Amino acid sequence: MRGLWVDFVAQVFRPAHSTSRTKVLRYIFTMRSNHSNPFVRGLLAAVPIVVGYLALGIPYGILGVKIGVPPWALVLMSVFILAGSAQFVALQLISAGAGVAPIILAGFVLNLRHLFMAMSLGSALPKVNIPFLTYLAHSITDESYGVNIVKIDGGKQLDPMDMFGTNLVTHASWVLATLLGAYIGNKLPVDVKIASAALPIMFAVLLALQMKGAAHVICAAAAAALTVVLMFWLPGNWSFIAAAVIVPTAATIIPPFPPLEKGGEGGF
Q1: Is residue 65 within 8 Å of residue 94, measured between CB atoms?
Q2: Claim to verify: residue 242 and residue 159 sit in the same structural domain
């Protein structure tokens, strides 16, 4: 491990005329994907996720402290729930005075997709002991799943230590970000509105990452416009739910557009 980082530092700090930013970035990605130790390989693959988790976990900790949730409870949520969207929604329900049952139900519905994620990754794993497999399933998030699923393209078997490295570092970074946010929330006068903006920002970023063509952009814009229109007729957050159902359903029914003449992609 020490040799890995010594080699990396040597590459980064070589004279400017002998290496470029592109070469350094290429070296990082090569080092990440070709390292002989599968745990280190998985850990390095999760580095971009860590940056995003710090940006979201800190506002989560701040918001939780500001609405009266003890820091220890926030940390336990990050350890045992490990789901940013469900945890933010839980804080919103707590601040609204909701009971335990609605909070648990909301978390269950939001995290139900993790069951299918775990099943798809589990089918590519070799036989491992139950406690280890339990942690691998528990520590799956949308982002770590995206990193791990790429590793099994073409029917390859997923190395459990590779997956463990990715999941462990993402899990630890989310808990650390929660601790930092709780500390900042206790020490600094941060406006709750600023911290609560992290959730819609997170979903906006996740949406942007899923867009891979003009059809996706059109669907997202149509859903946003329909949401605004339905807000005048539907109570609460039903406009969001309705738009999320109507637009994807319509996109699957509408026939594809004919291909563009200059090699563009048409249709949905």
Answers
A1: no
A2: no
